[in-house]
Amino acid sequence: MKIIVDAFGGDHAPLEIIKGAMLAVEEYGIDVILVGSKEKISECVEKNNIKLKNTELVDAECEITMCDDAKSVLKEKANSSLGIAFRLLADGKGDALVSAGSTGAITVGATFLAKRIKGVKRPCIASVMPSAKNPVLLMDCGANAECRAEFLYQFGLMGSLYMKNILHVKNPKVALANNGTEETKGTPVVKEAYALMKAADYNFIGNIEGRQIPFGDADVVVADGFAGNLILKTYEGVAKVLMNGIKGVFKKNLLSRLSYLGVMSGINDMKKQFDYKEYGGAVLLGVKKPVVKAHGSADDKTFKNAIKQAVWFLDNNLIDDIEKAFSKENE
Predict the structure, then answer these.
(1) pLDDT (average), residues 278-306
(2) d(CA 151, CA 120)
(3) CA distance 161 to 166
(4) Dihedrals φ, ψ of 81, to 5°?
């Protein structure tokens, strides 16, 4: 199994990306292609005493920044680390691609270079989030700010297959994010999507309000990319505020510090449960090759876990099942 890594995508590239890739090599027994300036990668490796293992270096002349147009990955910056990484993926030189770079550029590269699965109207970004019960898959998290009803219907289908194949949920509950649970609530697009999803073969349970999501009332939550991204970022922010608040309570005085010793194990378990680093990033569903968008602020552990998602993809033949499902839909 060979994973292509954009070594210069993300806030802490290339150091944390290289370290995370090497952690993945050790833990998952994979091979890695690091794409980026060979000179800068070599300097970083030497300076930080990193030993590269099962690693191939592919040179790139530039990087795509957050200020660049997303479509630059196809033309002006086709020879960037991300552009070359996508061409390697399209040419079959690697099995999956992982990058912590620009969400827009990754979406464009996945759509036009890795290519859409036949029948998929729009690829979407799907992010696994923690809940009080089990992990929840939120989609779309930013690839499609505006959606037609049929896009949302298809997101539900792909999300259901992801939960079955990857997280082994037997009959995933799929819900539509809305401002009320009633069938009559929402925008015209959401109401139309509700009707399509209600008639779907997958287990659609109706609308879900934002406050229900953290309780794990659904396994898959479908939204357009604008609303989904807001839900995701709010979710992460609230989790950080709560954890920092709990930490502050126990640091208040000597008695509270001593009290912490009695609940430390439970607090650490809760922190791990709601830590976004455990999943590392989001997957692009609807394209022919596994593509994972790691968190832009990814450290080595987070990036290693993003690579883990690519490994899950390949181990469980998710793309084959999505292709079969859409072939059936097309018939």
Answers:
(1) 91
(2) 8
(3) 8
(4) -60, -40
Of 20-29, 183-192, 228-237, give the lowest mean pLDDT range: 228-237
> Does 271 score more than 70 pLDDT?
no
At 253, list the tokens: 């005085």
Q: What is the rounded CA–CA span in Å between residue 58 and residue 294?
A: 20
- The SS3 call for residue 294 is strand
pLDDT recorded at residue 329: 76
Q: What mean pLDDT do residues 282-293 have?
A: 95
For the segment 148-184, what is each residue's pLDDT rounded down to a tens digit? Answer: 999 999 999 999 999 999 999 999 999 999 999 999 9
- What was the pLDDT predicted at 331? 67
Angle (CA) 152-143-225 rounded to 5° is 55
Sign of CA dihedral 104, 146, 233, 217: negative
Distance between start and end Cα atoms, the chain:
33
Q: How many CA atoms lie within 13 A of 149 on its CB side?
A: 14
Copy the structure tokens of residue 97: 């691609």
- Tell me how long the chain is: 331
Q: Residue 115's CB: how many other CB atoms inside 10 A?
A: 14
Burial tier of 270 (Cβ tally within 10 Å: 0-12, 13-18, 19+): middle
Nearest to 108 by CA among 293, 320, 324: 293
Q: Above 70 in pLDDT, residue 124?
A: yes
List the strands of the sheet with 291-294, edge to edge: 55-58, 31-35, 2-6, 96-99, 291-294, 281-285, 124-129, 136-139, 220-222, 174-177, 204-208
